[in-house]
Design goal:
The chain is built from 6 helices and 13 strands.
């Protein structure tokens, strides 16, 4: 008699009764069960390892500092920075549009900084658009045309020219992705506390609370001071320099010196003044 065990034939030496076969069958089942248990255990360990690795990756993302996040954003800006200006004139309407072409994607990006700009007038072809007009529009976006305008494509409705960033644009990049701006100096009797990047809490000599902010722009930094009232905020001054905008804050505070502070204002000052000492 032959019996198949685990895919292999075993010669039982002629006739064998059920009492002889049952132990072999039970052993085969135990072996199969043990193999299945090992397989499930290995799969479970693999899932746990994958879950741990996923958790570690999530934790690494959470642990990124503000400087590291800005460095990543800066690299993305450099990767997708425009290298070409593109002029398109519609053969149907005659409208002209100036756009900016990414150096990596070779296409335009419609975001707040690189939004295409319509050029006034009606034109038959891109050649009809004045080169001085194009140069001025490119310069306004803080770029410089460094090559001649040449036809792009085969339809004759598009031209392109190479551009390079101006110092003003590079300064905007540094202000946006570089180190935190320096906290402005205040005079004796005034208090200033950093709330977050480019945002400070300032208390005047008269005990009035103001918000000081700075925002990078292609034309230079924009400093602004707002006064907190019971109804919201009142913009006091907006200039290109911290010292000048603080002068506006002092004048505003002095003018309101004879007026009582807004309800709840004294309590807010009490919270922030010790933090600056």
């Amino acid at each position: 008699m032959r019996y198949t065990l685990g895919g292999a034939d075993i010669d039982l030496g002629g006739w064998a009764g059920l009492d002889d076969v049952r132990p072999i069958v039970r052993a085969d089942r135990r072996r199969s069960a043990a193999l299945e248990a090992d397989r499930r255990r290995i799969e479970q360990e693999q899932r746990r390892a994958a879950h741990r690795m996923q958790g570690e990756r999530r934790q690494d993302t959470v642990r990124l500092t503000a400087e590291e996040r800005r460095a990543i954003a800066r690299r993305a800006e450099e990767t997708h920075r425009p290298v070409t200006a593109e002029l398109y004139v519609s053969p149907i309407t005659g409208a002209a549009v100036l756009a900016w072409v990414c150096g990596t994607c070779n296409s335009t990006h419609d975001d707040h900084l690189w939004r295409p700009q319509t050029i006034g007038g009606n034109y038959r072809t891109p050649l009809a658009v004045e080169r001085d007009t194009l140069a001025a529009l490119v310069e306004k976006r803080c770029w410089t045309v460094t090559s001649t305008w040449t036809v792009h494509g085969t339809r004759g409705d598009t031209m392109r020219a190479t551009i390079t960033p101006t110092p003003a644009y590079l300064a905007w990049v540094d202000a946006t992705y570089g180190p935190d701006p320096t906290t402005p100096e205040v005079e004796a009797g005034e208090h200033i506390v950093t709330l977050q990047r480019g945002w400070w809490d300032v208390v005047s000599r008269e005990g009035r609370r103001y918000e000081l902010t700075v925002r990078p722009a292609l034309t230079g930094p924009v400093w602004s001071v707002r006064y907190r009232t019971a109804d919201g905020f009142e913009t006091v001054a907006t200039t290109g320099m911290a010292g000048t905008v603080l002068i506006g804050m002092r004048a505003h505070s002095a003018e309101r010196g004879h007026q009582p502070a807004d309800e709840g204002h004294a309590e807010e000052v009490h919270v922030h003044v010790p933090l600056a000492s």
